[in-house]
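In response to reviewer comment 3 from the previous cycle, which asked for concrete evidence that the modeling workflow produces usable outputs, we include below a single protein chain processed end to end. The sequence was submitted unchanged, and the resulting structure tokens are shown without manual editing.
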Amino acid sequence: MIDLFMMGGPLFMGILTVVFLLMIVAAVRNGCVKELGMLALAIGFLGQLIGLFGAFEGIEQMGGVSQAMLAGGLKVSSITSIYGLLIYIVGMIIQVVKKFMA
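The workflow returned the following structure tokens.
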């Protein structure tokens, strides 16, 4: 799990983890869970796009890469998006449970 965290980039994965922790605190205090979930989703996709931009810049400078290397890069760039999406899903589940309990 720590390997995925480091592969996804400590900056964006760290920011997403902080947003997740804030979302948990907001759930306990009846705060803005949905908004924090959406923020996590947006940050995840931003991290992926920045990673893809860097990868495509490297490919452009090298003049081309193998399909395996390209697939590996796409896989790594998707880690932040998946993490952000999972945080968003947890936020939506919290919202549903809170509405059901009310």
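The mean pLDDT is 91. We consider this sufficient to address the reviewer's concern, and the full set will be provided in the supplementary archive.
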